[in-house]
């Protein structure tokens, strides 16, 4: 009985670690995507501003 509870507790700990590891990876990936989107938006605005400056009045 005691060994069974120890095995179940150990397995639960491994599952908890795996879930938290995956959650961390997903969060970091979402952050990287957000940074990429911000960079694209900043580049788009920069290019639009440059296009407006180059158009003849």
Would you mind describing this structure in some detail?
- The structure is a single chain.
- The protein is an all-alpha fold.
- It has one helix at 2-54.
- It has one domain.
- It is built from 1 helix and no strands.
- The protein is rod-shaped, with a radius of gyration of 25 Å.
- The mean pLDDT is 92.
Index terms:
57 residues, mainly alpha, 1 helix, rod-shaped
At a glance:
The chain is mainly alpha-helical and 57 residues long. It is 93% helix and 0% strand.
Topology record:
Layout: H1 2-54
The secondary-structure element order is H
Strand tally is 0
Low-pLDDT segments: none
Radius of gyration: 25 Å
Q: Characterize the overall form.
A: rod-shaped
The average pLDDT value, as a whole number, equals 92
Q: Helix/strand/pairing class, anyone?
A: mainly alpha
Helix content: over 70%
Report the β-strand fraction as a percent range: under 5%
Number of helices: 1
How many strands, what sense, and barrel or not for the largest sheet? none
Number of domain units: 1
Through-space gap between termini:
86 Å
């Amino acid at each position: 009985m005691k060994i069974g509870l120890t095995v179940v507790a150990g397995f639960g700990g491994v599952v908890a670690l795996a879930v938290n590891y995956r959650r961390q990876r997903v969060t970091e990936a979402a952050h990287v995507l957000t940074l990429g989107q911000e960079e694209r938006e900043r580049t788009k605005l920069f290019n639009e501003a440059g296009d407006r400056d180059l158009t003849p009045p």
